Amino acid sequence: MSRVETLSIRGARRAFTKDHAALESASLELHAGEITALLGASGSGKSTLLRAVAGLEQLDAGEITADGVTWTGQKTFLAPEQRRVGLVFQDYALFPHMTAVENVAFGLTGADRKTRALEQLRAVELEHKASQYPHELSGGEQQRVALARALAPRPGVVLLDEPFSGLDRRLRGDVRQRTMEVLREAGTAVLFVTHDAEEALESADQLALMDAGRIIQHGAPQDVWFNPVSETAARLVGDVQTCKASVRNGEVVLPIGTVKTSLAEATPVTALVRPQGLALEPEGELTVTRVTYSGPICDIDLRATDGSDWTLQVPATDTINIGDRVGARINPAYVTLLET
């Protein structure tokens, strides 16, 4: 099958009850050769949107088109088997009585189906496991077999629903990296659903944030992280601290430092401050209240003179102790000022 160059979701709505819409005016575009991560908390509508693209869920309103062909619309609904979609689910859904190559070949037609299945296993570096059954494979290997099966029919779009959440953290990064390399080589449009911000930021070419059934921000991962459009968006991609203030003489004065701004005088703002944007100074009026180590990174909790609490994240250090008096310096690149 030929790949889908552009898949468009416009105004998608899906309500399972009168009082709650799982999707509400959700719009998103996927492009061939790009991995789009859909990031949101549990219940935000991520999986419902993915299932709607796959044809496993009908919409109450809105449309889904692939290169101008309507998959879901007011009077059109293509069945899942009519859509050029490859699916990888959280539980992999491999047939336990079939070998790896039989799983990958399932659904393929033609005399060369086994050859094509072996080629796809080779692409995910598992050709040597072709004759083994799912229970003889590790979790990471099962995930790669599921990916090979999804790619074998040469789909136009690949959908992945929390595909790495069942793996232990030690394996997750390596398996994720291999998976994304295979998907990029395939050149298909990819929608990758996850609730893990680190996973989304590391893996995606494009990042879409979802909350309460809506896409609230979409763009390059680094742009979304550095320039969140709201506090909700900021928290979806990482830790953030907030403080209300107003502009005075071209500055916003926070309990932990000052940020210059071009906003108009007296504009009320909410400052969103990433802990990675705060650096320690040897002298100041902040009191260290807690020091937390996580490998090479250290979170240092500080209390300002107004009683507000702040956290900064720095390389691990053994020179800071609870009760120390320190100062802080703000990197403005890690601060977003939202007008309120």
Report on this model:
It is a single chain. The chain has two domains: about 5-235, P-loop containing nucleotide triphosphate hydrolases (Rossmann fold, 3-Layer(aba) Sandwich), CATH 3.40.50; about 240-340, Nucleic acid-binding proteins (OB fold (Dihydrolipoamide Acetyltransferase, E2P)). It has helices at about 45-55, 100-105, 115-125, 140-150, 170-185, 195-205, 220-225, 230-235; strands at about 5-15, 20-30, 35-40, 60-65, 70, 85-90, 155-160, 190-195, 205-210, 215-220, 240-250, 250-255, 255-260, 270-275, 280-295, 295-305, 310-315, 325-330, 335-340. α3 (about 115-125) packs across α4 and α4 packs parallel to α5 (about 170-185). The protein has about 350 residues and is an alpha+beta fold. The protein is globular, with a radius of gyration of 24 Å.
Summarize the structure in short.
The protein is 23% helix and 38% strand. The protein is of the alpha+beta class and 340 residues long.
